[in-house]
């Protein structure tokens, strides 16, 4: 049998046609997505240790950064895929996702990513994508918080576009109820187990008071606190976040072990100590299928870690750019054509040398 004039098996022919016609569903399998943990084995063998060293240094003085870097990867992947679109700054042609409501004044670590990129470029110029740096940073941050490690599938390329509107639409909000959370994850090809496992990243890090004041004082305009909040915890949170206080004050996600990646996030939910509404919903929604998963993870840290690893790899495969599409950015905040325009001192192959200013 022949397709496109070449003799091949019929099944292969059909697959090729489906790919051409865009009829294959978005793949969540690492191999099918074209990613491979050994992608940089020959071109940048030290990339993992370079990324690790920068993050380890930063986390000594800023332990919160570990959670912030996981969140950065998550907020990248949910908006047109894991393509480092979140790192792009405002320019004439780019409306930055950084100023979309889910990111504005809350994403952290852009400077850390730039530091990593500088170190990586020194060792292997023009090879490692910013999107892969975000994926590696998320795994390394998990490990540095004493969580599980996994082999990060690599080989993503960076986008040449961003989508601020989509950031406002796709990213779940702290006030989401369970059906909206499930649907936001489902839109990305992630199921209920992925939702519960990935929410476990709230086992460390901080949130700002402004996202919980309604739960503490006037939940759903009832003039009462959220009834699913533990009353002891409510009093503690009211001390940290007084009514009409500074909405930017920080509070720990996990009151038990604030900087450690462990199963306490789930144990906290069982005693009604989830910080955000979107956390407690997983356990306190009557009859929800998430309840048994929370119960499982709260009593079995290994089950949580295994699920988290699988879900992070799955999330890391969303909408990845490989092959001839995309580019390897020289500077993570700008697409390459604009890096040159802005005179950021990047190597410009067309001009055959370093361009330090324009
Ligand atoms: C990390 O910190 C050590 C000790 O302070 C320093 O020698 C090293 O250069 C730092 N590495 C990076 C990549 O920042
Ligand atoms: C990119 O924008 C961020 C604010 O979102 C700013 O802090 C940073 O300095 C900008 N980066 C560059 C290289 O201009
Ligand atoms: C952003 O995404 C929306 C929804 O997919 C799409 O309609 C819009 O054209 C995109 N905007 C840009 C700037 O790509
Ligand atoms: C979610 O997907 C994973 C595979 O990615 C699978 O193992 C798990 O059974 C699924 N869970 C549900 C509730 O569908
Ligand atoms: C609760 O919020 C509603 C709507 O914003 C407002 O009308 C009401 O006055 C608030 N109640 C209290 C006690 O703050
Ligand atoms: C509230 O938290 C305390 C521990 O601080 C715990 O003993 C109690 O059982 C919790 N209440 C509920 C309803 O889970
Ligand atoms: C949690 O779920 C996993 C996978 O279904 C199972 O192997 C394990 O025994 C469960 N653990 C508990 C404590 O229920």
TrEMBL record:
Q: Where is the Plant heme peroxidase family profile domain?
A: 34-336
Reactions this protein catalyses:
2 a phenolic donor + H2O2 = 2 a phenolic radical donor + 2 H2O
Intracellular or extracellular location(s): Secreted
Q: Name one Pfam family in it.
A: peroxidase
Q: Which InterPro entries match?
A: Haem_peroxidase, Haem_peroxidase_sf, Peroxidase_pln, Peroxidases_heam-ligand_BS, Secretory_peroxidase
Cofactor notes: Binds 1 heme b (iron(II)-protoporphyrin IX) group per subunit.
Entry keywords, A to Z: Calcium, Disulfide bond, Heme, Hydrogen peroxide, Iron, Metal-binding, Oxidoreductase, Peroxidase, Secreted, Signal
Q: Could you say which EC number(s) this protein's record lists?
A: 1.11.1.7
Homology family: Belongs to the peroxidase family. Ascorbate peroxidase subfamily.
Annotated protein name in UniProt: Peroxidase
